[in-house]
Amino acid sequence: MSTGDPLGDLETTVGLCPGQGAYFGGCLDDLRTDPGGAAAIAAVEDVTTRMLGRSLLATVTRQPAPTAEALLDEAPDMLQVAVFAASVAVFDSLARQGFRPTVLLGHSLGEIAALVCSGALDVTEGAQILCHRIMVLREQDTSGGRMLALSCARDRAEQIVGLLPASGITIAADNGSAQTTLSGSAEALRRVEQVADAVGVPATTLRSPHPFHSPLLHAARQALAERLGGYRLRGPHTPVFSPILGRYYRGTDDPGELLASHLVLPVQFGPAVDRLYRSGARIWIELGAGAVLTTLVRTRYPEIKALTPLTRSRTAITEAADYLRGDHEATPRSPSTSDRVERAETPSSNGSRPAPPGPAAPPPTPTPAAAAANGLTRADITARVRTLYAQTLEYPEEVFDDDAELEADLGIDSVKQTEMMRRVGDLFELGPPPDDLRVVDYRTFGNVVDFVGKSLASR
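RE: above sequence
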């Protein structure tokens, strides 16, 4: 692997392998029968069953399909496995159709998938490394630490943390100008959240099973390095840039030592995106479920082309492959263009939009009379919420129809959804969101509108 920058000034295609949370219920269903993705999923299933004593497929393919929130409640480790499986399966599906990116970039857990997609590790080795990581964290992490996302750039986050000396809080991930993630003790992060609220910076507690990228995981890092001592990298067909190391992987690297160090080192995703953009990266493809990373990239560079092949649209992978082969007439759905309108209206295989699974029933729809009693009809509420979302997220208004799924269709992650619910509360003078509000219960734009109507009617 080269120690320099292999990209030069060419227009570059970047394959993005996401980490924790890049999942939606049913995301592996079509890939299980895909000629490219099926073998990858089968390999992950075999390793997971042997090493963790639990079947990935039995966990995630039951009906109704479990949401990310449900997996965090009952099988958080399997959520990590599902994220990894989705990445390598999407890549294999696209590779079978001729796709090869210029460079691969993983986010946290996604670096393991990126090394697999590059050919430096095979799928079985990557799955084994992931399972070792999971088992070590089970055994070694007794910290009780948590993670918190701030909707601000790193320098602003550091200023907030600086107001709490000796808190032990560290920057876990610099995701660019719009988001910084912290790790630390639950009590310290609670104080950070209070300070952030006081200075007007939205803060969202992340449901993470461990305080990743934190010195709190030092013992786990040492144990994982020992477990991974026998692994070696092969020569890759695609270079892999590490936003944790701040460089490309090299052939002389010890993957066990480096992948273990990820547990305690921060993810510099924003700076990595900047570097690749300066090198000519203009096409970014999400090699995983949803559009978490491509949305972060577009926040920084709106002019780039973002491809999201694993969505609820059953044709998205084929369309992405067609585009990447040069058939630009077959423009794939992108999470910040008018193509979102097409995606939001794409039917499922039985001709209707799949009912969003979840641990709780969607909130009841207020009657028009109830909303009108507050001086606003549902149409009035819809118009105001649509304008707020469009202006804040810089999306065209027409993508926000009632059925549009905020994460699966529009690439709005849970952190941003929580922030938007706060903004909705401010717009309609509803006050802060209730402590028990879960964005998973408001998966579609229409759910958010109905939440406002119900809240207004109950005042």
